[in-house]
Design brief:
Shape: globular
Distance between the termini: 13 Å
Strand content: 25-35%
CATH topology: Rossmann fold
CATH class: Alpha Beta
Strand order of the largest sheet: 2-1-3-4-14-13-12-9
Helix content: 10-25%
Number of strands: 14
C-alpha cells in the first residue's frame, strides 16, 4: 500500500487516480502517526513553499517524513513536494525545507535573456533522464507536464537524474538513495507519467 500525504497543499484526487490506473493500491493519509503503515509515500504539492512547510509543521508531518526517510523506504516528492525535500527556498522570502537532500529552490533567472522567460514554466517539456528504475520503459520523447515558477539547485550533481531546458537547464528529477523527487506532474503526463507512477510502485 502506498500513502499519499494530505497536508492541504495538493491535488490529491488526480494522484490517487493515477495509482488506480496502474493497478496500485494507494490511499490518502492525514495522520503522520500512520506513515509507517505504508510501504512507500508520495509527497505531492501545489502552491507556495512557505505555506507548505507551515502546514507540514502544524500537523507534525515534517518530523514524521524525516523519520520515514531514515527507514530506507521509498518516498517521492512531486512538483512542490520535490522542492520541499531540499534545504531551503527563496520563494517569497527565505524558508527552511525538510533538508533530506542538500540544495535549494531558486526562481527562474529570466532577466539574463533579451526576452524574459514566461513564468511560470507551464506546459509540456522534455526531461532528459539518467539511467534509473524510475524511468524504465518511457517512450523516446520523455515529454512531461510542468507548472512551476521555481526550480531545484542541487549541491551534489550526482543526485540529479533528470534535467529539463527552459532558457537554461535545471534539475527536474532527483534521487538520493530512497528519496526521489520529480518536478513535472506524472499524474497529468499521460502515458509517460503513468509509467513513472508504475515504476515507483515496483521499486
Amino acid at each position: 500500500m502506498i500513502g499519499i500525504v494530505d497536508y492541504n497543499m495538493g491535488n490529491l484526487a488526480s494522484v490517487l487516480n493515477a495509482f488506480a490506473k496502474v493497478g496500485a493500491k494507494a490511499e490518502i493519509v492525514k495522520d503522520p502517526e500512520r506513515f509507517f503503515l505504508y510501504e512507500k509515500l508520495i509527497l505531492p504539492g501545489v502552491g507556495a513553499y512557505g505555506d507548505a512547510m507551515e502546514h507540514l509543521k502544524e500537523r507534525g508531518m515534517d518530523e514524521a517524513l524525516m523519520e520515514y526517510a531514515k527507514s530506507g523506504r521509498y518516498m517521492m516528492g512531486i512538483c512542490l513536494g520535490m522542492q520541499l525535500l531540499l534545504e531551503s527556498s527563496e520563494e517569497f522570502g527565505s524558508h527552511v525545507g525538510l533538508g533530506l537532500v542538500k540544495g535549494r529552490v531558486a526562481a527562474f533567472d529570466s532577466n539574463r535573456f533579451e526576452e524574459p522567460l514566461k513564468i511560470p514554466h507551464m506546459g509540456w517539456n522534455r526531461m532528459f533522464t539518467k539511467e534509473h528504475p524510475l524511468f524504465e520503459h518511457l517512450d523516446e520523447s520523455h515529454y512531461l507536464y510542468f507548472v512551476h515558477s521555481f526550480h531545484a539547485v542541487l549541491e551534489n550533481d550526482k543526485e540529479e537524474i533528470g534535467e529539463t531546458f527552459y532558457g537554461y537547464s535545471f534539475t527536474s528529477a532527483l534521487a538520493k538513495e530512497n528519496i526521489l523527487g520529480i518536478q513535472p506532474h506524472p499524474e497529468k503526463s499521460h502515458k509517460n507519467g503513468l509509467q513513472i507512477i508504475e515504476n515507483f510502485t515496483k521499486l
